Amino acid sequence: MSDWLSKLSGKANSAEKAKDRLKLxxxxxxxxxxxxxxxxxxxxxxxxxSNHISIDxxxxxxxxxxxxxxxxxxxxxxxxxxx
Amino acid sequence: MAAKxxxxxxxxxxxxxxxxxxxxxVALAQLGQKVVCIDSDIxxxxxxxxxxxxxxxxxxxxDVIEGRCRVRQAMIKDKRFDDxxxxxxAQTRDKSAVSPSDMVTLCEQxxxxxxxxxxxxxxxxxxxxxxxxxxxQSVLVVTNPDVSAVRDADRIIGIIEAxxxxxxxxxxxxxxxxxxxxxxxxxxxxxxxxxxxxxVGIVPEDETVIMSTNMGKPAATDEKSLAGQAFRNIARxxxxxxxxxxxxxxKEGIFHKISxxxxxxxx
Lengths: 83, 267
Fold this sequence. Notes:
heterodimer, A: 83 residues, 3 helices, elongated, B: 267 residues, Rossmann fold, 12 helices
């Protein structure tokens, strides 16, 4: 009830904000991987893969996901079609 | 008979470890169980005052470990329950006076005489915490629905797993249903989703806890206390009973309506 009220008024409630912030903080606490080291890793992965196949660096996605208390590093690397 | 050894910890201080330990101990005693609770927060003891036993202390945990008395002599009998005992922490020493293996030995000495040993852990992740979990067969983590308590709970849950004492189970303490309704407090589902561990109980924020602590009578002895009821439910779940969670919204709703009728001047 108060959910749609707060959405109508355009004010995000603070609990949602807390949950979003905690999600990120916990991933970094659990893995010791910071957003900047993740970026660095991404650049290196792109470099290595580019040596073998042709990819578009802009489309590469590297992210941390968690399932229960397990962390997973997910890489999505679309390959450029051959011409 | 071998006691079940349960450690209550949290990472962050001030979330209600000692309150939880006192109340669950009392609730187990009410169920006819023989219980010893141990305050392992050496230098900052408090389980004695929460239980109202501060004037009866003669010997403490460190006296037992350093051989100045037998375990039996340091076990203070509760005022209300014949089968509830407290082993208080030493107040004038520090955590280094006890080692994890000392705690294991101590628990082995009393394990055959009781049904439950509940260990109240100090805050933090250092020596005192390591001492507290060393003898544990299972660990309960207390948290509050706020960012710092949940973050610290996550750290401690990870360490408990790494120490092969997991999986820990969670007590969410000081939940405020009105704040949740307003969208300004994480609800139990959010906290469980973030921490990804099993729940053993939700305890509402309740002024009867403050009042009962003032008196040295844990809220679990108060039939009318909602938090007391929540702690009694936790004790029954530890015993293996399948007890549904309290409907906090309903109670809050009724309470709110009644208080509105009688009290026009706000809360």
